[in-house]
Amino acid sequence: MIDRDALRRVATVIPLLGANLFPVVGVLSFGWTPVAVLVLYWVEMGIVTCWSVPKVLFAQRRSPEVGDRHLPLSELREKRGGKSLWRDGPPAYVRNVPFAAAQVNVLLLVWLVLGAFLFAQLGLQNRMTSALIRTVAVGGVGMAVGRGVEFHREYIREEKYAETSPRATQQATARHMAVFVLLMGVAGVIESARTASLVGVGVIVAAKLAHEVHNYRTEYADERPGGIVGRLLDSDGNEDPPERVSMPDGTPDERIRPDSRAVVADGIVPGVSGLASRTGYLAVLLTAFGVIVLEWVVVAAGVALLSPIVLGKMGSHYLRRGTVEYRRYGDEIVEYDRWLDEPQWRVAIDDIEESSVPRRVVDRFLGTGTIAFDWRDADEERHVPSLGPFEEVTDVAERLGLSATDAEQKDPDRTMFVAAAGIALTFLAVPVGVVVSGEMGAGGVVLLTLLFGGPFLVVLGALLWVAAMNW
């Protein structure tokens, strides 16, 4: 009797095996050196990272919440539900978007930096012939196809996404990059005479194949190698997916949606705050440098980095506020996401410890308000959701059965504002003095201010913001 599982695995492994043996063909037929093989593996590393993005989105199990606050768009980690991207396909989970964004960061930063290092240190700009470029392109296409076959057959059709987590997929990508860095060192040692090419490529290909075999065994063959290597490279930490929030019986007594205009306007603040991240800081520096040297290609590159950061944070804000509605079922309140068709949380009104209408700058300009309250679940975990913004916040609070709705009017903190403004003027006096003295041009002063004063500007901006909130 034919073992269908074995045939399926062979059909999946053959494209990957062929792509990884292609460097041997390159040496025998096209005169490749070990360094040329590294170029192909660098291309493959980018391909692996690209395929890891959909893998992360479809991963059904949760990752341990360790270091999640450092992820981009980490506020989406608590979002429940997902959307199928094609008919009868598995859902792509919104809670996995932060991990997918992190993989994109890896592609843009780590992969490109390693590529630049590879080209600069090994002098590839003088070795890249047209024939080498064509053969590496052919090998890259073969690797992309092999990874695509693996994704379709094993990950989607065999539903391996139900057994993995975003963190495990990230670890697989990190292992791949670690192997590439190791191979870079090996290639630097054995790169010598033409006669050593075949031996060198044999060593590199053997190490790479061992890594691929380990990955396949751990990800798809349900095997866990033992020993030190197995413990170092294994991917643990998958947690059960979150339980679905049950809906109360009957029809809701009230359905209330946030003010969409205020939601969009409210998203500008978190959008700009995204520039305080490391990637955003680098994008601001790149854009400023392009403006100073009048290199519009550099400016375009900086704007290309800035735009997804700002738009991503604004989109994240809208996903959390703009697609939901608040339903009241008797003495219970449910936040329900209309786009995902998924309840987000459910709480009994009697379990709410405190509710209020916080004072916010955006609400003051738009004439809206939000409702904040907190409660503790059965595990004594505290939840502090924020509802809105609403145009008639007092009326909404009454319809939801919330009693404590007086706005939190904090005393004006003009002292903090004056102190922050004074620090700002003192800080600006230094670069202005340098420009006036003629020791350095205005462009150089601006660039150095952003480069060395960036963290200080972030702190100063936070102080001014707090002062404005309490003015």
The helicity comes to 55-70%
Can you give the mean pLDDT? Answer: 78
Order of helices and strands: HHEEHHHHHEHHHHEEEEHEEEHHH
Strand content: 5-15%
Number of DSSP strands?
Answer: 10
From the spread of the alpha carbons, the general shape counts as flat
Characterize the largest beta sheet: strand count, sense, and whether it forms a barrel.
Answer: 4 strands, antiparallel
Spans of at least 5 consecutive residues with low confidence: 225-235
Number of helices in the DSSP assignment = 15
Trace the largest sheet across and list its strands.
Answer: 3-4-5-6
Q: In angstroms, what separates the terminal alpha carbons?
A: 79 Å
Radius of gyration: 27 Å
Structural class comes to alpha+beta
Domain module count: 3
Region (Disordered): 232-257
Transmembrane segments: 21-43, 100-124, 281-311, 416-436, 442-468
Keywords: Membrane, Transmembrane, Transmembrane helix
Pfam family, one: DUF6498
Question: What does it look like?
Answer:
The chain is of the alpha+beta class and 471 residues long. The protein has three domains: 4-233, no CATH class; 254-399, Roll (PH-domain like), CATH 2.30.29; 414-469. It is 60% helix and 10% strand. It is built from 15 helices and ten strands. The protein has helices spanning 4-30, 34-58, 97-122, 130-157, 166-190, 197-219, 227-233, 260-266, 268-273, 278-293, 296-321, 361-366, 393-399, 414-437, 442-469; strands at 82-84, 91-93, 254-256, 324-329, 332-337, 342-348, 354-356, 369-376, 382-383, 386-390. The strands form three sheets. The protein has a four-stranded antiparallel beta sheet. Strand 5 (332-337) and strand 6 (342-348) form a beta hairpin. Helix 10 (278-293) crosses helix 15 (442-469). The longest helix has 28 residues, at 130-157. The protein is flat. It starts with a helix and ends with a helix. The model is unreliable at 225-235 (pLDDT under 50).
